[in-house]
Amino acid sequence: MSANFRPRTATAVIIANMIGTGVFTSLGFQLLDISSPFAILMLWIIGGVAALCGALSYAELGTRLPRSGGEYNFLGEIYHPAAGFVSGWVSATIGFAAPIAAVAIAFSKYMAAVLPWDMTPGMQTAMAIALVLTMGNLHGRSRRMSGASQTALTAIKVALIIGFIAAGLFLVRDPQPISFLPKPGDGANLLSPAFAVSLIYVSYAYTGWNAATYISGELAEPQKSLPGILVKGTLLVAVLYILLHVVFLRAAPMEALRGEVEIGYIAARGIFGDGGGRIAGGMLALLLISTVSAMTLAGPRALQAIGEDFHPLRWLARTNADGVPRNAVWLQSGIATFFVLTQTFETIIIFAGSLLAFNSLLAVLGLFILRRKQPKAEVPFKVPAYPLVPLVYLAITAFTLIYVVTTSPKTAVGALVLIGVGLVFYAISRKQAPE
């Protein structure tokens, strides 16, 4: 029988899923309308609180419903199989494949900045596709190879970020004269529309805290290990995000960061000098490899669960001798390749981020339904300070989604279309199911 994933691998999946492009690109957009260091830090603290509340809620959901598949499993069990199918459909087409494409595109752009020769757009696209397919091949072979490589890549990622933070805190010769303490007017900043819009970017940057629930059925004792995995991974990332933004704002003037995407590059120049740009580009490129790897590992488990439950799609549930859903891995990699060829980085981030947030909002809301249906159920883990913790997550997530709908109605329409197509596929698969 094939080996299960270890808790440290699941924790690595969470960390690698979360730390991607968002934390290294969001600050420039936030500084367009917010110039308060205190307000900027509060964005990332609030985002971390939301992610932690979500992780605690998923910890109880995962111990009550310990099967792999993430929201596909939760929504199908709590609401209706159709809700689970659509959630899995969204995860397959957008939730993992689209972010994989976005991160691969970012990887190719940073590599183009680091390498000593000029890369044409076609060469950058080819490099992005090569990364997607390489990770597909790596994670389509065996759990042992998949788990070991993911743990190693994530360890490198965390070590590089800690090194960058240490350099930013102790090696900056002329740190910016800023204070992170609240000042008059900061209260208005926290209640402003600009703060709400900026929280959308932060929410996307924290996306991925739920990734371990996609492989929970492949953990040895998920009901015991999952809560610690979710909480530890999310807390570590939240701390790193907050420290990174302290470094960004200390290392470079706000005027240099405002409106820019390559925040890591600009901050590195403030720390190391002009040569730091290439160092930052190479570092971020390595970090993004880990992110693509983690998404390639976790996402296909939702497809596998769909294949197990819906007969016409049973080919997605087929595994190799080591229990890896190879067909699902390659389908997701194929969809990601399609997005690399047809979509832009910005389009993918906005669309994928809002749909993932909506998916998780429904899952956390389902915790209230489960508690009502099973009031006396004995489970290894229950959310502390219930119902406050899930309510905090629901409030912050709903707040950001409302602003996505109001500021980008096309995103909402596109999401409805995708959900509608998923329902059509669900109806077709039910009709073709064997008696």
Automatic annotation (TrEMBL):
One GO molecular-function entry: L-amino acid transmembrane transporter activity
Species per Swiss-Prot/TrEMBL record: Algimonas arctica
InterPro entries assigned to the protein according to its UniProt record, in alphabetical order: AA/rel_permease1, AminoAcid_Transporter
Entry protein name: Amino acid permease
Major localization listed first in the record, in broad terms: membrane
Keywords in alphabetical order: Membrane, Transmembrane, Transmembrane helix
Coiled-coil stretches noted in the UniProt entry, renumbered to this chain: none
Transmembrane regions: 12-32, 38-61, 82-107, 119-139, 151-170, 229-248, 279-303, 348-371, 383-405, 411-429
